[in-house]
Amino acid sequence: MVNRLRATTLALGLATAAVLAGCSDISPSDTAYRPNDPRYQEETQGDNSLFGSGGLVGLLGGGSKKDAPGAQGIGVNTFLWRASLDTVSFMPLTSADPFGGVIITDWYTPPETPNERFKLNVYILDRQLRADGIKATVFRQSHTPDGRWVDATVDPKTAADLENAILTRARQLRVNTAQQSS
User: Which of 77, 122, 126, 142 could form a Cys-Cys staple with 152, CB 3.0–4.6 A?
Assistant: First the structure.
């Protein structure tokens, strides 16, 4: 038992010495901050902001005029993003990712038809305001007499109509923004 304790103590001592020896190459001059050192100038030049060049406002959709209209702050076209949120605002949201351009709603039961419910997935695919920059998927379920929800077919025209409604709203937002800035 005593030999085992001595061996463990010796091993810990050697491990500690090895770790401390590994740190001995670092001199204080290597870790001191020197603002005129070219190695550090690249890191410190620029906007010095946690949120990027536009600050928090730029992150949320403001930003420089050099960006394409509707492409500031988020990973997708801001007009399509806002139009998508406006269009599906009557449904409860499960997830909304402005950087990936994905909006997922929870199931919604229209008051007019309590035996069916709908769910939407909206994908914004581009930073440009284009018709092929958006894709909507509609899911529908029907309520059976035994109380279960079962998947039901959805007319493909429903998704196309939703995409067209989003595009129409996005164009309205772009026109309104252009009128306000002029």
Answer: 142
DSSP 119-142: EEEEEE--SS--GGGEEEEEEEEE
- Dihedral, 163, 165, 169, 174 alpha carbons, nearest 10: 50
- Cα-based angle 165, 82, 112 (whole degrees, multiple of 5): 50
Domain around 121: 68-181
Q: What is the pLDDT of residues 121-173, one digit of tens each?
A: 999 999 999 999 999 999 999 999 999 999 999 999 999 999 999 999 999 99
- Please check whether residue 1 lies inside any domain of the structure: no
Report CA dihedral (153, 82, 167, 62) to the nearest 10 degrees: -150
How many other CB atoms are found less than 10 A from the CB of residue 61? 16
**Total of domains in the chain:** 1
Collapsed DSSP state (helix, strand, coil) of residue 97: strand
Note the pLDDT tens digit of each residue in 131-141. 999 999 999 99
Cα 93 from Cα 98, distance rounded (Å): 13
Please give the C-alpha separations between residue 56 and each of 14, 27, 59, 74, 176, in angstroms, as whole numbers: 50, 38, 5, 12, 23
